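User: Batch of two.

Assistant: Item 1 of 2:
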Amino acid sequence: MKLQVVQNKAFDRDIANVCQTAELLADLTVRAAIATSQDVQDRLEAATHAAQEIAATVDLGAIEAGLNEAGRPASAQEIKRQLQVLIGSFPNSGRNDLAIFGVALLEDVCEEKPGIAALTNACRSLRRTGKFVPTISEVLTMITQETQRHEMALAGVREFPQRIEKALQAAVDLRERRARDFDRMVRFCKSRIACEQSHEWFDTAVLTEARRQLGLNIDGVTCDANRKRLAPMLAVQAMPRGDTGGAT
């Protein structure tokens, strides 16, 4: 029996690229809202750049139209053909009650009104991964999973331009937040240096910038006399803005 499944490798590749990138953008945008690491910023900016290149080279409208067509409800005949091939693909399917099972399976799947793509992908996955004829519940569960995957793909394509814009803004916000955090840590480091407290545990970049701003030798070789002479002035300079402590 020949299954009427149209495959377009170029189209499938475009769909995969858009959907994977859309999912990555959404994930990194959420992470960027709470992250402060350079790694997240680099990954977000790289993903955003890749998404912009994809948007400039593929027809998102055509991909959406293709996904809509693939999501159309399968006809009763299409469902029957897919299930016949599914059951017949297992060498242990020649049991006596198979006819009853097939009727029940067809009836239950038809009630779900699956999309043609979800149905095809679900049956293909069960054929390739299962060792025994799947139960009705396993078939329905796989169809549900494929339906959800299709809906997520369609949403990713529809929202692709918006996800790029959100990712761009998230990258700007993260960069600014990291700069503020860096300045705060530099001020904190400066205050500890000025008060002759331990400070070697600061990040190298923070420690280097703090020493540079304080006019100290970057390698930490500073004579005690010079440190003591500068300490009172540096302690005041290192105070966070708005601090009105009662130093006399």
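Item 2 of 2:
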Amino acid sequence: MEENKSLKHLMFSNDSLSKYRIEALTDGVFAIVMTLMILELKFPEDIPGHLFSTDIQDHLLLLLPKLENYAISFIVLGVYWIRHQSQFNIINYANRILLWINIIFLMFVALIPFTTSFMMNYPNFQLPVILYTSNLSLIGFLLYFHWKYATNNFRLIDKDVNIEYINKSSRLTLAAPFIFLFSIIISFFSIRLSLTIMYLVPIVHIVYRNYVKVIKPRVKRKRSAKHEKTQE
């Protein structure tokens, strides 16, 4: 029995990798990607000096669609980064497969400045919207696969982690990519509406977090209090 435990510990030590270097790499890639997107927001430099005071508002208004695309990308990447950090709060260590899942995940994250720029420069065309939302959707599905791989049979997490928490986290992670897939479908009918639907991603996460932390505990307390009164 002791020999089996020793062998299992040896296998764990040989196969396991530190999770902290993955987290550091992820933080670095997200920081660079989220910074690069702002470079696409350039104010026109060819405005004559005597027209500057009268035309500046018009030029700022022309930048609003790009500002909107920048804001959506930045906030969604923020949501994905938070989900990635939340997963690594539970994941104890990494292995080669998890490492490669993260590398592929970061590859599509690094593609975001390109797809965002494409949509900024061609806002009224469907193809840029499809490429952009497909990019964001793939990132979400990879993040979900990352979580499922780590938690399947408690592969890379403690066995005392609540199953309900694992399942809820899985559903929350899947919310964003499915919203983007729905946005792709809507783009065949209305590009403007498809972009508006993307705002659901941060809203869903905020509502869900408030429900879990505030609303659900209150409902449970009220139910337990009501149950105690009926027993009396």
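Residues 200-231 form the longest helix (32 residues).
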